Amino acid sequence: MRVATRHYTSAVEAADRLDDLGDDDVDEAYKELFEVGVAAGELDVALAAGIRAVHMASSQVERARLLARVALCRAEGDGSFSHARVELETEIAMLGDDDVVAGSWYWSYLAGLCYRLGDNVGAETYAMAVLDEPAAPETAMPRALALMARHTMLVDRADPSRFEIGDAAIAAAEEAGDVDMLGAIHSNVGVALHYSGDCEGAIGHYRRAAEIADRRGDTSRLFYVRLNEAVLRSDQGRWAEARPTLDDLRRATQYDSIGYCHALSLRELGRLEVHAGRLEQGRSWLIEAKDWFASAGNRDERIEAEIALIECSLAEGRSDDVLAAEPNLVASIGNDALPHYLDGLIDHLVGSALLQRAEGREALARFDRGVAATADAYPFNHALLLVDKGKAEHALGRRRSAQRTREKADAILAAFRVEALPYVPPPR
Q: How many separate domains does the chain show?
């Protein structure tokens, strides 16, 4: 943080001397103020400088690089992801057929914007538009960005190639010489390992990303690394360890201009509190997060908050509310795939609600469906489904089957190093 503040102060001082600088130096001063402003979390100042730098850009390529980054930063601040997409697509329409380098900058950022909006087809199309072009030194950075976007989508689908693409993204960032991008990709690879069940491997990549962000004074990037590690600890039931980190991130972004980060911290803190049995506080955080994601058009993020709110209702013993929420949630999802780490959650919640109502056979059917859906997805969700499937089997008098099911769950939970399971309300 001190590094970011020092760099930011230096950039502001340089900007204050603009009247004494030539045009080229003014351009560089604005670009520097934009970059260090983003890193320090001073988004309002950063955007003002970034817009000035866009207007002073000396080439189409430079304009594309700056405008795409400014559009994404603005969207992360105020939730205007749809507007940013339209803005960049309008710029692409005005490019000539031979403006491949400028186009690559727009395509790479549009891949990320589409992903945030839940448009996986659009995200894949724009990422491949970059990657299908012949590799060249001037497109090294857009290629690294496109690979990172594609890696994120492959992680969501639990695609077997996600680890290969993650390694390719790391190599591309190293080739481009972009240390900040390298840190971001290490964080993404950590997420892939986390959701495949390799917690120690995930922590290794998170620590590498944190080292880079801390050394560069990039508090914005450090936010995501700390969030990712706290989510892993929360899933392990290490709530006392994860809670201070998440609450610190919530406080740090409360009056920040980056609303997306604040909403993420609220959602994960709310989810932790629900799992730890602090239901009233958890619900409050989750509602605030859901409302922000809904206003910003972040479909997957909103749905994840809604699922956590339904989980809160279940923990409150409100099984009727859980069952009533299912049709609206399914309709909201439609035919679009959700990230694989959400696979089976609806079946799990509905099965648990049925079990609360002593409808054991119906509950077991939903648990079986969820277990099948998570067999090749997030091991943590698979294990939790097995735990409750075992409860349903036990309630139906199938004690040997229940014991075998629980043994399978315990083996996965032990490998994941889970210390506590999410809160379950006492029987009524």
A: 1
